Amino acid sequence: MSARILCAVLAVLMGLVSVARAADLLSRPLPAGGGTSAACHIRNTGTTSIPIQVRVFSNNAPVVTSDSCNDAPLAGGRACQVVVDLPDSSYAACSVTAMTVRKLRGTLEIRAKVPRPGARGGLEKVLVAEDLR
């Protein structure tokens, strides 16, 4: 009888361990005009690597142009970013999901390309930024 009770208690405890929830950081949606991009910067202020999932989303379909966050755990003291091109008349937000976000910091930037006369390409000017909470 006591062996059954012990097995039942262990099964319940193992079930509770597997129910561990992930935590999130999230920015509020920021408005974006034509010719803009969004960059979500994430930094691990701790000393150990943390597997993270970073997502930039919009009310219109954004196009990912750069992603250094979602391919491997983010090492301690390191940073990564996800950059997307935004369609006209969009709103964009960023989220990061990890088992713990205590040592993670993040910022979402909406950027506009600024042409440089006589040069190829252009600079990017930050129009608005928001910290993830």
Output the CATH topology: Jelly Rolls
Q: Nearest-angstrom radius of gyration?
A: 20 Å
> Order of strands side by side in the largest beta sheet?
5-6-3-8-9
**What string, H for helix and E for strand, traces the elements in order?**
HEEEEEEEEE
Give the class-level CATH name: Mainly Beta
Number of strands: 9
Strand-residue fraction? over 45%
* Principal-axis shape: globular
Low-pLDDT windows of residues: 3-19
User: What separation lies between the terminal Cα atoms?
Assistant: 50 Å
Determine the mean pLDDT: 85
- The number of helical segments is 1
Structural category is mainly beta
Count of domain modules: 1
Instruction: Tell me the CATH architecture.
Output: Sandwich
Largest sheet: 5 strands, antiparallel
Helical proportion, percent range: 10-25%
Describe this structure in words.
This protein has 133 residues and is mainly beta. The protein has 1 helix and 9 strands. Helix content is 13%, strand content 49%. The strands form 2 sheets. Strands 5-6-3-8-9 form a 5-stranded antiparallel beta sheet, with no helix packed on it. Strands 1, 2, 4 and 7 form a 4-stranded antiparallel beta sheet that branches. It is globular and about 45 Å long.
